[in-house]
Amino acid sequence: MQSCSVPRLAAGILVAATAFSVAGAQAQQAESKLYEILDRGHVIVGTGSTNVPWHFVDDENELAGFDVDMGKLIAKALFDDETKVEFVKQAPDARIPNLLTDKTDITCQFMTINTQRAQKVEFTIPYYREGVALLMPKNGRFENREAMDAAIADGETVHIAVLQNAGAEDTVHDVISDVQVDQYEEQGLVFEAVDSGRADGGVVDLSNVMWLVKQHPDRYMLGGKGTLAQSYGCAVKPGDQIWLNFANAALREAMNGRTFPEYADAFERWFGERPPAPQTGFPAELR
Amino acid sequence: MESYHFNWNVIWRDWDALLGGLALGLEVAVYSLAIGMIIGQSCAFMMTAKSRLLRVPSRVYVTFLRNQPPLLLLFFAYFVLPRMGIRLGREESVILTLGLYAGAQLAEVFRGALVNIPRGIAEAGKSIGLTTFRVNLLVILPIMFRNALPALGNTFISLFKDTSLAAGIALAELTWQTRRISTETFAVMESWITACVLYVVTCTAISYALSYLENKLRIPR
User: Fold this and answer.
1) Could you tell me the CA-to-CA distances from A168 to A75, A130, A163 in Å, in that order?
2) Does A189 touch chain B (CB under 8 A)?
3) Most buried of the four, A58, A76, A280, B56, by CB within 10 Å?
4) Contact assignment for A189 to B169 by CB distance below 8 Å
5) May I ask the CATH architecture of the domain B9-217?
């Protein structure tokens, strides 16, 4: 070992360096869930199965809804094939744990972006902005919102049904004031109250109203939107910038870029209207 | 569990609303019992009548109503009847539902109390020249009522507890108020524990009052 020559030493360094750089490259690849998903050949998306129009089992016994379409959109961005996706049906309280334990790669399940949750997971950019809205029956006491407002101004009692919840009164008053608020213990009973004429309207999520008006235009109408908004985003396990960047790129381009038609079709399918198309030239979303 | 922090202030703040809910429940139970007693006594006489024309309808009514969950009846009265053009208020819907339901329960109670009255008593009434109607009204009814009193008390307590079902149609009784406080303040333990205690105390008090009444009205033997 004493007679270690310079060329041998140099060769040794070269081999070690090469090995290190190869290992480094492999380590870099293995560090992101993105490469793991590409190797696996499909993406695992966590979502629910019990909330129309977000995620539910349709007439053909298939999972459907806007969240499900977002999952397919990400699969298409990954593999150019929207069927390369496995959905894990989970309850809302399993959204974060399943991400943290790697049971899911990404969760798209009408998840409100808030700062408490953002301390546990990382959110993508939002793909929908939720608010509350007034659902009015077509055959109800009032022909439209103006007639309802006029009746309220005349001092008539107007009943508005809402789900019994923290801040339920405030939620209703965000959409309509000076009404009698009837708090029901289940969402189904809110719709029942509207259908039976027990309530003159119901305050529920905007997406619910849009879905119902689309499904039953002869029965329901939109009676106005509230001002309070919350954003729905997908979420990933924290600490994986590569995968988060990819998911963001997929969603952003679906809302503002080349894949806009896919996003817009899904939006129209579940909410009954087409979102505004992106304008060419200056990327307006950065304004 | 260890991290749960009790905050009883939210209960005191809404104490009046809770007691108001309790009072509303009692009021509904009293009205329902009144309706139930009228229906129950009428049905009991019909069920023991000789004529099939009286027996069959009363039997059908009792069978139908007794084998129905009261919550379903309540939803029917509140959400379905308006579609048929019958529109009762929130509180009236609950009173009617529980009254009809109690009527069917009490029909059996009164029928039992009626068949336990010795024949001789009615015959004694007739022998002093009373008509059948007057015998029933003046002789049989008071005895039947006294016979039925213990079961009547139980029915009242059960009716009072059943008023909690009215939370389903957003009537602001005790259970509804409790859930409101629980969802608004997240004081889940405090609100439900308070409601449990209020129900138990009220039912126990009713039960004592009724046994006092029973002793007062006991048939001397």
Assistant:
1) 38, 16, 7
2) yes
3) A76
4) yes
5) Orthogonal Bundle (1.10)
